[in-house]
Amino acid sequence: MSNLKNVFKDKVVLVTGHTGFKGSWLALWLNRLGAHVVGLSLEVPTSPANFSACGLEKILVDYRIDVRDRVRVSKVISEHRPDFVFHLAAQPLVRRSYVDPLVTFETNAMGSANILDALRYIDKPVAAVMITSDKAYDNVEWVWGYRENDRLGGKDPYSASKGMAELAIRCYVASFFSSPDCPVRVGVTRAGNVIGGGDWAEDRIVPDCMQAWSRGETVGIRSPEATRPWQHVLEPLGGYLSLAAVLHDNSKFHGNAYNFGPPAHQNHSVCELIEAMKQHWENVRWQDTSESKQFHEASLLKLNCDKALFDLNWQPTLQFEETVRMTVEWYKHYYDGDLQSMHDFTLAQIDVYMELAKTRGRAWAQV
Question: Residue 258 in contact with residue 148, Cβ under 8 Å?
């Protein structure tokens, strides 16, 4: 695999959802790699936000466009003619999907279709990585990890919307991007629960804890025994970048889906995550509020990532303890009040991660 800096340097890269948690980290990483980043997102979703804390509006082209707006989405793509597309724009919250399922379906399914439809008219090579979710799987809570060919679906509107997006992507690949000379190559990614600095989304365990503990308050935990494939945000982003690189170089990966998650033995409960966070934050207090749960929420979900290892030579870099430490250190730096340096601090964490990946033999990190 080519070194990532060689792949993305001086390339035009469109990141949808660039103001969100994962999108802002990806945009900053791509900028670090020398790419010309174009961002397309409806708004900064939270206040505070990683996008604002790191001053990302100063280092990229910043479009505030609803991904459901087919005409404006198409105009941005036709004007900038990107070499790479990373589609992360989404309605990402399970609880909100119960409040407004139609917006969730429109954003996650039709938004994905709008991106792909605009790419139909691109007459140059472009590699598009479509980010869906591990919740796209029809989760029956079995104890082994889901593989990419397992059944998709979902009991809640959010999960269903991601399954719908997958169907739309599959349709576009087969119907419009299947000819051998087609310049558009598409890959799909499904990642487990990500944590890391700069996430302030509602109803997420780490942001809830960090905000409460920074104020000396007790945080309510609604599902302390639920297990998740926790991973640092940089882990799946490294997978997305790796997939884009191989799509750029080799058409045989076109149309494939990949899981990106930690090893199965690193699945941890919410309670275990909190105990690990306590090692890096003083005066941690929490209480079990599980009796107040009023909607379906899976308690067990695992991913099998063998395909990513076999095809992309990708595997996670960080241990669970390192993931937690990096996450809590970011928030400590933020809440200590040194806001002017958050951009540099975040870049430093990216650099540390890349150096660890290189030291631990990850293919994408090698020079």
Answer: yes
Q: What are phi and psi of 179, to 5 degrees?
A: -70, 150
Q: For residue 108, give the CATH number of its domain.
A: 3.40.50.720
Rg of the chain, C-alpha, whole Å: 19
Nearest Cα to 88, choosing from 140, 51, 137? 51
Cα separation of 91 and 106, whole Å? 9
What is the C-alpha separation between 41 and 231, in angstroms, rounded? 24
Token pair recorded at residue 311: 């095809």
Question: What's the CA gap between 330 and 228, in Å, rounded?
Answer: 21
Q: Is 131 helix (H, G, I), strand (E, B) or coil?
A: strand
CA dihedral 320, 326, 331, 332 (to 10 degrees): 110
**For 18-69, how does the pLDDT look when each residue is reduced to its tens digit (9 = 90+)?**
999 999 999 999 999 999 999 999 999 999 999 999 999 999 999 999 999 9
Number of independent structural domains in the chain: 1
Q: In degrees rounded to 5, what are phi and psi of residue 87? A: -100, 105
